[in-house]
Amino acid sequence: MPNRLADATSPYLQQHADNxxxxxxxxxxAFAEAERRGVPVLLSVGxxxxxxxxxxxxxxxxxxxxAEYLNERFVAVKVDRxxxxxxxxxxxxxxxxxxxxxxxxxxxFLTPGKEPFYFGTYFPxxxxxxxxxxxxxxxxxxxxWRDRREEVAEVAGRIRADLAERxxxxxxxxxxxxxxxxxxxxxxxxxxxxxxxxxxFGGAPKFPPAMTVEFLLRHHARTGSEAALEMAVRxxxxxxxxxxxxxxxxxxxxxxxxxxxxxxxFEKMLSDNALLLxxxxxxxxxxxxxxxxxxxxxxxxxxxxxxxxPEGAFASALDADSLDEETGATAEGAYYVWEPGQLVxxxxxxxxxTAARLFTVTADGTFEHGTSVLQLLDxxxxxAQYEEIRERMLRARADRPAPARDDKVVAAWNGxxxxxxxxxxxxxxxxxxxxxxxxxxxxxxxxHLTPDGRLLRTSRDGRAGxxxxxxxxxADTAEGFLALYAVxxxxxxxxxxxxxxxxVLKHFTDEASGALYDTADDAxxxxxxxxxxxxxxxxxxxxxxxxxxxxxxxxxxxxRHRTAAERALGIVGALAxxxxxxxxxxxxxxxxxxxxxxxxxxxxxxxxPATAALRRAALLGTAPGAVLAVGEPAGAAEPEVxxxxxxxxxGGAPAAYVCRHFACEVPxxxxxxxxxxxxxxxxxxxxx
Length: 688
Known about the structure:
688 residues; alpha+beta; five-stranded mixed β-sheet; 25 helices; 19 strands; 48% helix; Thioredoxin domain-containing protein; 6hp_glycosidase-like_sf
């Protein structure tokens, strides 16, 4: 049996390379084989850090008898959802429509024409909890395929038509950009869903709402809404103090299984942590919270310590599972949880008692088998002692068997990390973070950007994969490059962002409606072209592109890019009141649109203290989506960045120019006056 997954760039596919199942990667060859043999396709979709994907693999895909049955009656196709989000999105929509729920592993049966006709997620090896066994599912699908082929074809055709009808909703006509009333209604909707006891929105399981927090902070900055700020602050503090947050090493787990943020699903994703780093950075900028600042820094340090690859980019995830040294078995969360006796052995009785009190480690435990997930429910009274204990525990934990790392590099998620690290480095005066952002951006340019200006979605070990970039790759990478320009002043990043956004306008945009598609017009044809403006774990490509287009237009004065952003944001107005939790990034971009966004040009010699002071004031401003250009006074030649054109010194001194809504204020040489214009929080400490 040929091993078709051995050379895959995806660690997830490589995890299945030695299964007795005769796996095929997604591609025309697999469907041609199904057509030749006259059998259906089993599509199995997951990702390397997915706990239940591992469980189903061990229970079913490593079973030689089941694999023999599967190989005889199906063509089995394995897909990494992080490499092919388009494939995942199309079939997940079908799964959710048919079953009312979704998740991974995703199990879908297709005709050789790629049409789905039976769906599910995880199936156990034996029937339990009302679920059939995986073997029973295979036997049932095989019987239907052999004996009721016309019925299968009818179901598949009906599902395909339903998906096409759903897709047409988003591009049925132009919508107006959201108005202030739309954003107020979104705030009202979020207030209804807000968990007054635990922070966050909705019940268990509870996901970190980074995009929604960004909207709330921007809405507060623009309108002064205390309700918006309170929801952002309480959610940020609850997540930071709970088990979702790694209290020793920094960073956040994927989600909490309970409403109180106590027990996480332990996988740690680059995308979540990049978004949360930026959210906590902006929370500190808006409030001066020492906790928010500490969390932002520890999350940045986590990214550099545990996710940075040798090539300088960032790996996509750490697994939830690791080896439990006591049992010798792989267990979820084994790397992170503690028992009181372990604290005594490491710290001695006195410090162990302090650590148990600080981190809520109890005899009964908060997790499985008497273990506790670390929490920090209150600020330490003796911060030096807390830091010393935390460092000792972190060093000891490093000796445990570590979770596996999915070292695949995803362009979109690296774009999010670049933006977050660049801003954090500038705001928190950590030049190493800016350097890390630049190095990751250099990797994307060297490996992911093709000579014709197109992006490839993934790479591994410095080798690009074959999968074309999707909309979020272009949008989030452009966002990262725009942040790098604002921080470094290197106009090359602005030009590179413009090139990516031109591709968005040419290949991803519906000219008639302004709607955006998740795949390019020349991408592989699926049963429908995926298109979704709502957020998932990351901002939707649609609204991320709108944000990058708006920022680029503010720098360059491009009416074409601003008009495209406004048209794309029309969907936000349509969804703001109905589904605010799922359009958070679109709401945040809409706040920037309503605020201008502010266009800030600081001119002065690079080494002049007054230039640095004005730049610092601009970076600390809370004005939603503000853009910043810093440059030398204009000479005879036109500056590379239009925002810096015609900006002389004022009275021979460095000056700041602030424009919004096509009108400019009187330039100022006073950092305090600039800070007041941009909503800088008075008295916010720059350090703890």
